[in-house]
Amino acid sequence: MQQLRNTITSRAAADRCARDLLAAVPAVMRFIKDQMRRHRQAELTVPQFRALVILSHHEDLSLSALAEHLGLSLPTASRLVELLVKRQLMHRQTLSNDRRRVSLSLTRRGQATFRTALAATQVALARSLATLSARELAQVSKASRVLNRVFAPEDRPADGVK
Questions:
Q1: Which end of the chain has the smaller Cβ count within 10 Å, N or C?
Q2: 91 by DSSP, 3-state: which?
Q3: Which helix (H) or strand (E) holds 145?
Q4: In sequence order, what are the residues at sequence separation of 6 or more whose Cβ sits closer than 8 angstroms to the Cβ of residue 41?
Q5: Where are the domains of the chain?
Q6: pLDDT tens for residues 73-122?
Q7: What are phi and psi of 19, to 5 degrees?
């Protein structure tokens, strides 16, 4: 009987936690996206900048995968990539063993563009978090590590940036 009670209590706690996350995560993501957009280079559109963000986390991504991440058609993604290649922010390479597959990666300039926006976003996020008490900051830090372990265990280094 006690085990059943513990299971029910655990499910209720998980449901409550899920509701809290669904309320908090969109607000945090909006803040992060706003900051990343605010600190992107002026000549980049938001979809172009999002492509840099995606490629900063996934080396050697295919054009199809990038299009899917961005929610774009293949022709639209191809045009976006062409512009980023011309601006020397992205490498595009056709694979010798499969000429239909294109591998995409960031150039050093593309990496620097992304890192600059990321650093400015981190400063803005830290400024907002500075309003919390030391105890609250520790709780947020611990919760972030736990969430990363649960939702991205295989592909995230400790600092969250690849």
A1: N
A2: strand
A3: helix 134-151
A4: 49, 113
A5: 2-131
A6: 999 999 999 999 999 999 998 877 766 778 899 999 999 988 888 898 89
A7: -60, -45
Structure-block tokens of residue 40:
């992107």
pTM: 0.67
Q: Which residues pair with 92 in a beta bridge?
A: 104
* Tokens coding 38: 């605010």
Q: Token digits for 32?
A: 């992060």
Packing angle between helix 2-38 and helix 46-57, nearest 10 degrees? Answer: 130
**Token pair 């899917």 is at which residue?**
68
If we measure between CA atoms, which residue out of 116, 112, 48, 110 comes closest to residue 82?
A: 48
CB–CB of 116/39 below 8 Å?
A: yes
